[in-house]
Design brief:
Elements lengths: L11 E6 L10 H13 L3 E7 L1 H6 L4 H20 L4 E5 L6 H11 L2 E7 L4 H16 L3 E5 L21 H14 L42 H10 L4 H13 L29 H4 L12 H5 L5 H12 L11 H21 L22 H9 L5 H13 L4 H14 L4 H11 L5 H11 L15 H8 L4 H6 L8 H5 L1 H4 L2 H6 L9 H13 L5
Parallel strand pairs: 1-2, 1-4, 2-3, 4-5
Helix pairs in contact: 4-5, 6-12, 12-17, 14-15, 16-17
Length: about 525
């Protein structure tokens, strides 16, 4: 990225923090902004804009917004130590944001603004508009790649086209990364402002800009807020602790009931950390196998670069391990999936506009049974693994990846309900809601996306349940009606219990017969629009 040399020196430099880069360290835009401020010997100001219209447009839920505010509080405290003000502005309508940012640049006498790129269509259009407006006033707006390890547009097939299949894309991603490890090089931390900034007539008052306790329309209930604070502590230090626990502690059975990702009890281990056995255990929902880093990565509280560097440090290697044969390699591939889905979002923006990537499935006939949709949301489908997953989403604002896939495929294939309704619900519930990853996962499950599950491959939720939750602890924790059951009867009670005994459980019968539902799904996908 080049800075125009004809831009006059201002009296401050602005770093515009967004929802996807909420950290102070290893952040390219704030590093560049700080460097500019130090070079010009002027203060650095950090701006954050709360845009309720954007939250609504992207189906962001109250938990995600609450997590954002808590992370803002952590960032403000860190910046305060450096005498850098964090100015927080709530603004509507969202289409007017470029004009408002330019107005702030004028009032703060700033000629340089730095921000990290957001790859969603609306956000790209917003930034292009700001760039054009600023250029006309001889001001510089610089946008950097920070969210992704490898930026969109970098990886092409031999024919110069975008990859649409993950495996060859990932091999190219890994090769590109190892050929240029500067891509994961740590960005310098920002320098402190002169303490006199606090007494400045214009910049001093910015230090008192408060972090709102909530955003109107996105306020969490008191009990849910307390639960989210316990489950998902905010800030970069918490994110590093969660990652460290994944890298250096053993997997444990029956972790589904932990009150916090940082729950005590795991002994340190040099040989059997969770990441080292990740390839074998990653699909187990009844064990403490997931890194639980997704909320922190989605909010940019920690950089993907940092996570990859820590895996290299763990292995004592100077290259990135990304092969399927090792636990570390498998986990790094999960980090790569985040890049992949954002590359798809950038190259094929229709996927963020409610369109299937595989347009041939645009005419698939979806069911409109509202009772089935509500039963799925409430975890009352009569399929234990699906219900456990959905109740986890409702109570914890998060879900293990394998249950996510099972629950998503059940909605789209067994119930034949439009994947876009599931996509919206997950965004509303999850603290790790990310448009690209959420859309990519749903389109994969619905067989409408890139690298999609072939439409005729449909998860049998009962077999998936036995594989994902062999001990049954996951189901028993989230579906207490079944807490006394074990073995196959736990995974499919209606098929393994006398009717009178099943009815005593107080648990619903399955909404549909899986075999019949599967045949319906295959038929509709085979001839979309004809049934």
């Amino acid at each position: 990225m080049k800075t125009r040399k004809d831009v006059a020196k201002g009296e401050s430099v602005i770093y515009w923090m967004r929802m996807q880069d909420m950290r102070i360290h290893d952040n390219r835009a704030i590093a560049m902004a700080s460097s500019q401020a130090a070079q010009d010997k002027i203060p650095l100001i950090v701006l954050f804009i709360i845009s309720p219209h954007d939250f609504e447009a992207h189906d962001r839920g109250s938990r995600r917004i609450d997590f954002m505010l808590r992370n803002l509080s952590c960032a403000k405290a860190e910046l305060d130590k450096l005498h850098i003000p964090l100015y927080i502005l709530t603004h509507k309508p969202r289409k007017d944001i470029p004009r408002k940012v330019l107005e702030l640049m004028e009032s703060w006498r700033a000629t340089h603004l730095y921000a990290n790129i957001e790859h969603e269509v609306d956000e790209l259009r917003r930034d292009i508009q700001l760039f054009d407006l600023a250029t006309k006033q001889n001001r510089q707006c610089s946008f950097l790649n920070d969210k992704l390890v490898v930026e969109p547009g970098t990886l092409k097939t031999q024919n110069g086209k975008e990859y649409t299949i993950y495996s060859p894309w990932q091999r190219k991603w890994l090769e590109t990364l190892n050929n240029n490890l500067d891509r994961i090089k740590e960005a310098p931390s920002p320098s402190a402002n002169n303490p006199a900034t606090r007494d400045h007539s214009v910049y001093g008052p910015l230090f008192s800009s408060p972090v709102p306790e909530f955003v109107e329309g996105f306020q969490l209930a008191t009990e849910d807020k307390a639960r989210m604070e316990k489950l998902w502590p905010a800030g970069t230090e918490a994110a590093i602790e969660v990652l460290d626990r994944f890298l250096h502690t053993k997997s444990r059975l029956s972790q589904v009931g932990d009150s916090s990702p940082l729950a005590p009890g795991a002994e340190k281990s040099d040989t059997k950390s969770r990441i080292l056995v990740y390839a074998d255990d990653r699909n187990r929902s009844d064990m403490d196998t997931s890194s639980r880093m997704s909320p922190y990565l989605a909010s940019g509280v920690i950089s993907a670069r940092y996570c990859i560097r820590k895996t290299m440090e763990l292995l004592g290697k100077k290259t990135v391990e990304g092969t399927r044969g090792s636990g570390v390699g498998m986990w790094v591939q999960e980090v790569a999936w985040r890049d992949f889905y954002t590359h798809i979002l950038a190259a094929f923006p229709r996927v963020s506009m409610g369109r299937p990537f595989q347009e041939k499935f645009a005419g698939v006939k979806w069911e409109t049974d509202k009772k089935h949709l509500e039963a799925w949301k409430e975890g009352k489908t009569g399929v234990p693994i699906v219900d456990a997953a959905m109740r986890q989403a409702k109570t914890q604002g998060w879900m293990h990846n394998r249950p996510r896939m099972i629950a998503a495929m059940y909605l789209t294939k067994d119930l034949m309900i439009d994947w876009r309704l599931g996509e919206k619900y997950f965004m509303e519930q999850f603290v790790d809601g990310d448009l690209a990853s959420n859309n990519g996962g749903w389109q994969w499950s619905a067989s409408t996306g890139t690298d999609a599950q072939p439409y005729f491959r449909i998860f049998n939720p009962y077999l998936q349940s036995e594989k994902a939750d062999p001990s049954g602890d996951y189901i028993r924790h989230f579906v207490p009606e079944l807490r006394k059951l074990k073995g196959k009867v736990l995974h499919d009670p209606v098929s393994h219990m006398p009717r009178h005994e099943f009815e005593k459980l107080g648990y619903p019968r399955p909404l549909v017969d899986h075999k019949v539902a599967r045949e319906r799904a295959v038929r509709r996908y085979k001839t979309p629009g004809e049934e």
